[in-house]
Write the structure tokens for this entry.
Amino acid sequence: MNNENICALSTATGGALGIIRISGPQSLEILSHIFSKDLTKAQPNTIHYGHLVEHDAVSQHQPQPTVEHDAVSQHQNIIDEVLVSVFRSPHSYTGEDSAEISCHGSRYILNKVLALLCQHGCRMANPGEFTMRAYLNGKLDLSQAEAVADLIASTNKATHDIAMSQLRGHFSSELGKLREQLLKLTSLIELELDFSDHEDLEFADRSELNELAKIINNYIKKLIQSFETGKAIKQGIPVAIVGKTNVGKSTLLNRLLHEDRAIVSDIHGTTRDTIEDTIDIQGITFRFIDTAGIRQTTDQVEQIGIERTYQAIQKARIVIWMVDQQPSQKEIQEFIEQVKDKSLIITQNKIDKEDGFKIDSSLLNTLQKYSFIKISAKHNLHIDQLEKAIYQAADIPTLTDTDVIVTNARHFDALQRAHASLQRVLDGLGTSNSSSSISHSPLPPDLLAEDLRLAIEHLSEITGGQITPNEVLGNIFKNFCVGK
Ligand SMILES: Nc1nc2c(ncn2[C@@H]2O[C@H](COP(=O)(O)OP(=O)(O)O)[C@@H](O)[C@H]2O)c(=O)[nH]1
Ligand SMILES: [Mg+2]
């Protein structure tokens, strides 16, 4: 496959410049057919100024360009004045000879250049094909290749930090360490296998094996658990704003978004559907969901809206419960019951009003077990405190360079399978104190070794260390943009 030369537009259309990428063993030769200089002898990592040209079919007088000489004849149609960056195998992104042509961003120019490159022997690249080649040529492992897509898609500091850390190989190196430990464990067990007919030989210390397996499994468990946070960071943390009608939920949404997104009115039941939008607080994306107010109603549309409010609560990680009157002890209990697995922030709105309510001290005690903030959405009072509370409620660990957070469902899946295999090893060692209280009889070493081998295989799937099926590769790279 890598004998083919590929090209693609790597930038979004509509900008002042457009970058066309070309890669493959003959890429520089092909490019030289339409460039005013001969790039076949160009040094690696050099930039060349020149003209992209189309030869006049009737002309017999072709100019003789060199790498220095910009040879354009009157028989050539100049398409654009460009800069070409030349990269040489293996020191290029793809690992192959390749070039990037910085053209002007005209759609006509870019299409023309791509068409000419294809005429001279290139084909259009598939989505992610440059990165797939980088992977196949050993420039990146699979998880790093996936990080490239995440990096391009990153919209805030948190998603950027995670993608960058993964791209730089922190996740890969953590997995490498786990693999090494698992190999050590396997070799201890296999040693036992090799000498199993020497009855007088002392077998590997089971409790030591157990200890090692447990440490590895706990680390894998930690990685699995980080996916919850990883997913939230990647997709935005869902925050539902709920409460009775007219307490000021839509006003708060608009305030947080700094725009008039939801209709605000003093008519009860104005918001009849859920409205969603995102904002970043301290580098984390939050997805705010403004909901229909909860009240008894005969209006069918409003009822559907209220039903959606309950769904929004289910999907949310953080629930802002807004009140503008003192809730009763019973209301509080009912609400808390409903959101028990969520982070709850209780906000008292409309504190600007002179007839604003005071909360009984007995209730205050209950409320203050939660994050309790007094605001005025309309008059922008204490919104900064609320934002701080929202950020804290998200409970995002501060990411350091070495922290690994799993954000990719494929990795999550592989880790879970590795965890299951290793759990069987622990159970099979017979000294497991796993969550199940059933005691397992010790497994023979060959079965233990088999499960260990599986655990190693599952971990290797993440970085693609072993032969990765084409189907898996296809699935990973099809979500890339073309030109990457
Ligand atoms: N005085 C005062 N009025 C507010 C405040 N926040 C919202 N309101 C008013 O309360 C009414 C209902 O607001 P809205 O956001 O539509 O409430 P929702 O039904 O909970 O979405 C509107 O007339 C708002 O202007 C506030 O902080 N102070
Ligand atoms: Mg509303």
In short: Residues 245-251, 264-266, 270-271, 293, 349-350, 352-353, 376-379 surround guanosine-5'-diphosphate (ligand 1) (CB under 6 Å). The mean pLDDT is 88.
